[in-house]
Every structure is written in C-alpha cells, then in structure tokens.
Amino acid sequence: MTHDQFEVLSNQAIAICGAAYFVALLLHLAEWAAGRRVPVDAPVAATVGAGAESRPTEAAEAAEVEDHDAAEKMERFGRWGLVATIVAAGVHLVAVVSRGLAADPVRVPWGNMYEFTMTGTLVVVAGYLLMYRRFSLQWLSPVVTGFVLITLMVDVLLLYTPVVPLRDALQSPWLVIHVIAAITATGAFTLGGMASVLYLIKERWLERGGSEASNGYLARLPGLNELDRMAYRTHAFAFPVWTFAALIAGPIWAQAAWGRYWGWDPKEVWAFITWVVYAAYLHARATAGWKGRAAAIIALIGLATLWFNFVGINFFFGSGSQHSYA
Fold this sequence. Notes:
Elements: H1 3-35, H2 58-101, H3 113-135, H4 141-159, H5 173-207, H6 217-220, H7 224-258, H8 266-288, H9 293-316
Helix pairs in contact: 1-2, 1-4, 2-3, 3-4, 3-5, 5-7, 5-9, 7-8, 8-9
Subcellular location: Membrane
GO molecular function: heme binding
Membrane topology: Multi-pass membrane protein
C-alpha cells in the first residue's frame, strides 16, 4: 500500500471505530436500563400460612421469573457491549498504526494534537480493558465508551490535519520515549478522574437521600470507599510515569532539540503545574489522610490542568510556544 492509501485507511478506520464505540455505548446504556428492573439484593419470596411450610405465592414466583429475565438481559447487553468495545479498540489500533505508516518517511503516529488525541483515547480504552476483569469495571463501561466517542468526534471535527513529515525538533528518539510516557500517564489520569467524578456524583446522590438498595446505575456503582481506592491506585500508577515524561524525558529532549533543558515555555510550565497538583494529591493522602471528596476535587483539578496543557496551550498560547505543533 502507498502512503496515501494508508492515510485513507486511517481515516476510514477512525470513522468505523467511532461507529463501533457508539454501538458499544448504546449497548451499555441498555445494560444499565435493564438493570433498573433487577434488585440489587436477592429478593425475599413472599410466604403464606403461618406455621405451615413456606411456599412462594404466584405473584412472588412471577416477580422472580421477571427479575431473572431482566438479569439475563442485563448480562447479555453487557457482554455484547464489551465485545463491541473490543472490536472498536481493534479498529482504533488499525487507525493509529496506519496513520504512522501514512507518513513519508514512516514515523510514530503522535506528531500533532490530532494524532496525540487519537492515540491517547486508545490508551484509555486499553487501560480499561486490561483492568476490566480484575477490578470488575462493568460500572465504568458507559463512561469510558461515551468519553472516547465524544473525544474522537471533537478530534476529527476540530483537530484533524493531513499527514505531514515530522518537524526538525521532533526528529529524535526522545519523541518516542517522552510521548509514550506522557500518553500512558494521560490515559491513567483520565481513568482516575472518571472514578473521582463518579465518587462525587454518588456521594451527592446519597446525601440527597439516594439509597444503595435501589436498582439504578448510581446504586450499582461500587461503594464510596471502593471508588476512592480505585481513583488513588490509578493516580499512584500515573504519577511516576508523568514525572518521567515531564521532568526527565522532556527536558532531555528539549536539550537535544533546542539546546536548553528548561525554557519556561507555556507547555513546560503547565506540565510542571500538573505535576505539582498531582504531587499535592498523593502527598495529602499519604500525610494528612485526605480521602473522599477533598481528594477527588484535587484529582479533578489536576485533570483539568492536564487537559488544558494539552489543548488550551495551543489555542491560547500557540504563537508563543515552541510546542505549538503538539
């Protein structure tokens, strides 16, 4: 295949995977809609005849059959949604790889904002799928698929650029090292931010009288302690990776490209701000025992600085940043 054909393949694959993520989102929404008819706790059958052998009434038997059917439907939608997500991720991978093969000469597929976003969303999905079984992440499925679908739509509509060769500053093996670390950390921070958002939503719902004995999506989310622990573990993994990307690999690459390790470039400054916020998050948890709402808010502030560093710098400081191409 020619380079132009690989570019067409990448564009077609990103459209197909977007459609697959949309199907996965619909299936997961159907899964949780069906779950509203399935009691969180096992139903207690009604009995008749005091002192006699307890037998369920006809109404109780009918309700039990209905609950069983709804539970099977919920499981079936969830299984189909997971399969659709895996298929979408596979096509997504094709889009990323073919994007790199479309360049002449062949290069890594993260030379601009469009390619970074395309690759970063793939990392989010990959992290979710890798942790799906171990941490029972069914509850995160509609959030992940919805986030990736919306982000890819924005990426294609607003950030798309044709394939071009890398700029001179990007002609370095540190591009691979620095950006792989940054993308991995960004994906992990994003998953942790999702858990933090759900923590705040569920906490607010419980304060307003919500009951975990009900059958809705919020009731089926893990408990607040589990959500808080999930967010902490994800951030604890991402932080050292971001530290390497922003404070070690980045300055080394800057020295090779521009002859200085640090130049107070807007993107460098905001990368450091992001590092400080997440360092404060982990330090507060370890020393002051901050958990729950306070920790979730700090984590989301960190996520806001992370994504502003990625997107906002280019729109507000693009002309004054040496990273304007990325």
